[in-house]
Amino acid sequence: MKHILILLMSVLIVSCSDPIDKSVIDTLSKSEQETISKKHHEFKFLYEMLQNIVAEIKETDSVSYQKLEPITYKRFCNVWCGDSLETENYAYESEIKWNNKYAGIEQKADSAIDYWKNEIDNSVLNTVNISYLGKQEKKNEKSNNYITELRIGFRANSSRAANIKKISFKLFFAPYDNAWDDVQFMNITLDRSLGEYVDVPLNFKDYFSIWKGDSTDYKYMVESIETDKGVFSLEKLNVPNSIVSYILNDNLNKTILFNSKTDVIKELFDPEYVTKDSYVGKAVLKMMKEKDPPVFDILMKKFMPDSSDL
Q1: pTM over 0.85, yes/no
Q2: CA 122, 124, 130 angle in degrees (round to 5)?
Q3: Using CB atoms within 10 A as the burial measure, which of 37, 49, 163, 191 is most buried?
Q4: Once rounded to an integer, what is the mean pLDDT over residues 173-186?
């Protein structure tokens, strides 16, 4: 009987000493971290992040800090170091649901984009050519020739629209080494198509002071022209706003074209549309939250404050 009691006590002591049963407010030694990481490989990447969050909560929110005490590393790992196969299966099921719900919708958006591109390409707007004339500067000789005023000039002509009276266009340029993934733009209106100079905004003055105006330095999109025969514009063509935005981004910033296509889908086909990645990601997060909401919120409130709808 004595031996049985000793054995039970030994088991109890060992189980209580398992670091995974400690509260997340307790700091773990390196060996304790390694012990948990052997069972939960993701833990070694999450531990430091968790400790930083706990420390921040301790300093800023005493009530929330007290609620952390009953949360153990075991509970934390159950949510954030879970079975990758379970997550993959759930993600796969969510992908199937997304495919069933939005089958063919991206193809519809592509068709709509192609249709409106063709409409614009065949319009008078696409026959306008914008050319750079040069720049006008005013310098302060007393301040190392610092440029106080800067104007740039453009000329517009069209093969199909004679006597252009007024033209509005967006001028696109890349201030940083022609990096078109960081494109900027100016809205410009010319009242005289043969040539007019416009003021450069202060925030672009330094860039345009060294601008050469080569054909590779800028791109443009004509939004409206006024001639003897009337006004021709994207608005009069009834081009949807999301399509205009998509075309504006085309060949300028490839990294945001996907977001632009999402806007096309929302405007023309389904205002509740979400991308596959967003749909699957939200579904997986919801699954994780259902396991243990208080544990889930430890990280989510830090990195995704607006996660209450999960």
Answers
A1: no
A2: 115
A3: 37
A4: 67
